[in-house]
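Obj: model holo form, ligand = fe (ii) ion.
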Amino acid sequence: MLHLAAGTDEGWGHWALEHMDAILLDHAHCEKKAASTALSMIFRYPGCPQLMMPMSALAREELEHFELVVGLIRRRGGEFVRQEPSPYAARLMAASRKHEPDRLLDILLCCSLIEARSCERMQLIAGALAERGAEAPGHDMHELFELYDGLLVSEARHHATYVELARGCVEIEEAALQQRLAELAAHEATVLEAAPRDQPRMHN
Ligand SMILES: [Fe+2]
Ligand SMILES: [Fe+2]
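Output (holo structure tokens):
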């Protein structure tokens, strides 16, 4: 269960396939950012021992994803280059409250929603690829299918990891946690709705 407040239109996956080079570049940046966010939690919250191992493992895994995506970009003749960061994550995180432990709770739940949205988008790309027959080995888009079909499972797990960490790191009743998750999910849907569509991104 991904806890998203609004689902993406089915057609998004096919639209993404028409802009795959741009989507892959953005995706590589997302994996890099996911690794950096996990690492930053270790620095920012040394007082939360429960965060250390899961965040370290997650940072490593996201870097592996980064390497997978950059490898594919290069095999397609492209290169991993700089790009203007998408406003999605910053706008989502802007809803985090300022004082601890609310702040930690909100950051973990926002991270869980980013993972959930990434998972949903990867599912749509893999679905669109499957509709084109890319599940078959030898298909010219088979490598893309394998990448997205493989990664979406990890991103679903990362979503669950962040929700679980919110439970473990912050003293909060389950109902209150669910309520805050629902509030932030509604905010995430609004941020996504308002995202600029001029460039193809994982989160627009
Ligand atoms: Fe990832
Ligand atoms: Fe992830």
